[in-house]
Structure formats: C-alpha cells, structure tokens
Amino acid sequence: MVSVSMCEISFDKIKGKNNKSKAGPLAAYYKLPLNRVLMIHDDMDLPCGVLRLQHKGGHGSHNGLKNVIFHFRGNREFARLRIGISRPPGQMDPKAFLLQKFNQTARERIDVALQEGVDALKHVLSKGLTESTRCFNKEQKYKHIRLQTLPT
Fold first, then answer.
1. InterPro entries from the entry (predicted)?
2. I need a labelling partner for 52 at 20 to 30 A (CA). Which of 4, 46, 114, 128 fits?
C-alpha cells in the first residue's frame, strides 16, 4: 500500500514469465469494485513509449489481460494504462519478442513512458479517470505522431 494525495493505492506486480493474475483475488480481498481498479500493462498495438488510458476494454489477444478478465468473472469494466512496446520486427515470434530485453532506444522510450505513467496516475487520483483520459490521451496522440518518424 502506498499513500498519494491522501489516497491509498495498492500495487501488484506479476512475477515471472507467466500470466497468472492475482488481480481478482486482490480485488476481492480489498473489496474493491472494478471501477476502482486500474491495470497497467504492455501493449504491442501501440508504438514503443506511447501510453493510453482507457476506461474499459477487451483483452486484445493479451494473455495477461485474458487471465485478469477471467478472474474478474468475465467483467471488462476496469481501467487500463497501456504502455506501448511496438510489434516485433519482421517475422519475429511475438513470444520471443516479449521475453527479450529492450534495445537502448526502446529502453529510453519506455523509461520516459513510465515517468509519464506516474504523472498520469497522479492526474487520475486528483482529477478522475474521465478528465485524465481526455487530457492525457490527447498529449500521447501527438507523441505517437512524433515517434512514427523516428527510428527504433
């Protein structure tokens, strides 16, 4: 548990290379309604270093999210902070891509994105998810456009 601006926050990190989620049991233990859960996860459908806040959504073939949704009894009504990691280059196997280390450029973009993610979470706590999503995603849209012209 962490306190930020008089709000208690609990973080859970999946350890290892499996997608077995503890999110469902944790939410049940703390008696959290799903509208109080924000899942942070990687996303190959976003360019490396680009973030997106969402109110809800599907799993998008993300095995970790499939598992979380399963543990939430099929309910998808929880917020997400998606961290772009890009698609694998060429014909590379997505599983191999996910398990490898980031190159220096990608690592730098991810580091910046993580700090922006912390700022986004602070904004969510102070202004709420709807306002934060509107403001934050607009900024990230322009970052997405800038990154399209840069090499990875």
1. Pept_tRNA_hydro (IPR001328), Pept_tRNA_hydro_CS (IPR018171), Pept_tRNA_hydro_sf (IPR036416)
2. 4
